[in-house]
Every structure is written in C-alpha cells, then in structure tokens.
Amino acid sequence: MKKKVFLTLIFLSLLYAGIKWTASQGNPGVISDAKDQITQALWGLVLLGGAFVILNTINPELTILQIPKLSQIVSPTSTTAGEVPQYACKVDGAAVGDSCFKTEDCDGVCSSLDPRATCEPTITCGAKCDPQTLAQKNNTAYPARNSSELQNVMGCIQGKVGSIPGSKFTYDIDHSSCNYTRGTPGCEPSGRCSHTKNSCHYGGSSGSDGALAVDYGGAGKSGSDKAKYFEAIVSAANQCGAKSGGARCENAAGQKVGCADATHVHVSAAGCDRN
User: Fold this and answer.
1) pTM exceeding 0.85
2) Cβ(139)–Cβ(104) under 8 Å?
3) Is 269 helix (H, G, I), strand (E, B) or coil?
4) What is the pLDDT of residues 216-231, one digit of tens each?
C-alpha cells in the first residue's frame, strides 16, 4: 500500500514538471526548473526500485514497512537440558555399515573422514566416542579381547611349535577405539587405525566375540632362522583351524611375501569373513 503511495507521488511530480514545462512559453528558467524536477523524480524512482530489490531479498516483510516477526530458533535435535547434539555421518553410496563421525557443536575428537558424508542427529555428544557405545553400535566385543576361536588356534599353534618368544598382536593396542568401530578411525585423534577396515584383527565385518587374527613377530631372528621359524608357525596354523590362506608371511605393509623377507606371520581364524 505504502509503495503505491510513493509511486503515485513520483508520477504526480513528473506530471507537474511536464505541465510546468509546457506552460513555460519558452522561459529558460522555468524549463530548467522543470528539467531538474523530472531528473529528481526519475532518480527517486531508481532509488525506490533498488531499495525494493535489496529489502525484498533480505526479508519480504521489510518491503511493506513492517518490523519482521521473530522466528523461533529450532535446535537440530531434540535434547534434554545440558545435552549437546552430535552427528553420526552415513556415507551415501558406501558399503553397509560404513560410517564416520563428525563434530558439530562438540569438542570431541571425532571428525568426518569422507567428503560424501551427510549428518544425521543421533545420540548425545558426550557418548559418541564412548567405547561401550561404539561397541554396541557396531556389534563388537567390549572390552577388546581375543575371540575364543582365536584363543584355541593360538593354543594349538603353540602346542605344535613349542616356545613362541616373539610378539603376538591380536586386537589393536595403539588405537583402542578402532576395536569397537571395526577399523573406522573416527574417534582416534591420529585419524588412523593399525589395520584396514573390517580386518580380522577387528573381528572382520561381522564377528562379535573379539579379535579373529594374530600377528606373530620374528622374535629377533634373522635370515634362515627367521624363515624357518615363520614357516613352522604357518604350517602349524594350517593344521590348527586357521582360515584357508589366512596363515601367511607378511611385510610391514601387510602384503604377502616370502617368509625370509617377512616381518611377521599373520594368522586369521576360520570364522573370520575377511582377512
């Protein structure tokens, strides 16, 4: 309504200036005044149009000269007093169970590790990296432990090889949260896990009883002594219920190599659905 008033005033100003010019009878002073009035009216029209575009972009209510109403600010999640929402990210197009964590309003260590991730509100922020919560979410053993199947395989191997003085790494000691996320490092400050995602060290993609793989170190042996020691472990593992192809010599990168060039022997239990 008020916009129409301004337009009407500009139109009347232009009309008056036109009449004034027509009735000037060639008087230079009157014609000059009429031109100035027309110019000013046109500038007013331009300014009015520009102001309308800007205000309409900011808030349409401003174009009708009304104070905008305050809108209620809605939290992205419904939480009880004192709780801060957190977001678990599901990756579009990724394999079932593929997930990551992203901090929005929280000061935790979780962060999004995939640019395809989209956030969905879930549990409260303080619980997102809690080991027991992660284990429940991913159906993994809590606390981290060796599965009974792996324990049986390791006991059998020792019975056949005898003394095994070297290191025996099963579940992840250096990056503990990875044991509960099956190797997704979203809750690790370093952003990494010791093994690949769904490794048998994390129970594969579905194991829920604990680690299903062990890495035997070289016990300080070298050359032919190390090769024979590793070969004895591989042979024993194949007789003790290891997964087919799951007992092998590997280098530090986890690649299968000859036992003379290996840094450890990897053994996966038969119940693991990965490597």
Assistant:
1) no
2) no
3) strand
4) 999 889 999 999 999 9
